[in-house]
Amino acid sequence: PAPAPRPHRIAVIPGDGIGKEVMPEALRALDAVQRKFGVPLELVPIDWASCDHYAKTGEMMPPDWKNQLSGMDAILFGAVGWPATVPDHVSLWGSLLKFRREFDQYINLRPVRLFDGVPCPLAGRKPGDIDFLVVRENTEGEYTNLGGVMYAGTEREIVLQETVMSRHGTDRVLKFAFEQAAARPRQKLDVATKSNGIAISMPWWDGRADAMHANYPQIAVEKHHIDILCARFVLQPQRFDVVVASNLFGDILSDLGPACTGTIGLAPSANLNPERAFPSLFEPVHGSAPDIYGQGIANPVAMVWSAALMLQFLGEQAAHDAMLAAIEQVLAQGPRTRDLGGQASTAEMGAAIAERI
Ligand code: ATP
Ligand code: MG
To answer: Per-residue pLDDT tens for 272-290?
Structure first.
């Protein structure tokens, strides 16, 4: 007999607040696909990268955190942050942002999709009208610490903040986006820019997009200035399939996109190192939601969908598809949590998804 495949090693980090409530529902769904498809998973529970750990030790993570996680194939993450006891910048910079930087997770990927059974804030939209991916550059661009204030405190005060875009960093995100577009039926890529106003970096970004396009002549490319692109997300969401953007523009689009499809409780995200030199991280877009923690009413879909994205990234397409289909059915038929207008608890909705799988 063929040797059993090496299991995917997954670090499971529930984190804080409702992260601790939705993670068990993702594990329930993973258990179901494990049994149905024989997906080999080795789940490694981790209780640090949380404000509870901070309360005990004075730090978010143990000193050897990188060592502990380096051998993992992926990190499944709930949410981090408990502002009542730990300031958000301490919890965030002490955990997630360290992963992003040290594991070179240079792609932030957010699928945006409108489901049957979910009220859409955009009038007249139906499922199928909204189904696209936002690909955000995650490591450079407008988010730097380069710059400073001159003549501080005087009438002559001037502030400078640099943008840094490298050819390496830009080309790799563009390449990833073209690959995503090439793998989807519509063969279309939309590029966010602002070359009419940001006169150095953005024309250069457009030029890199053109250069990469030469490798993918079959893909239709459209460039949009970020202002009109935001308007089109709202007015014409059906025209998008894959959208690629720099760090700042991608940050804006990747919140606007999910906002166009109903509750924040549905939106998943992936922080990817596509070459798999380091573990990639999968987490819901929502935070720890202290306002609803402890009531068992958090929507588990964003967490379950994030786990599905993880399996897709690890090559388990059938398991991903089964999880998505189960989510789709439960959203359409219930049970639904309160943010969707239902009465179900987190566990009831999670159990229904696992049952469908
Ligand atoms: P971040 O931690 O990303 O800065 P935040 O703390 O500002 O985000 P969230 O924790 O995402 O915000 O919560 C924003 C609002 O959305 C809260 O009112 C919260 O209760 C609600 N919310 C977030 N996630 C869910 C969920 N899974 N189900 C239902 N409601 C949610
Ligand atoms: Mg928060």
So the answer is: 999 999 999 999 999 999 9
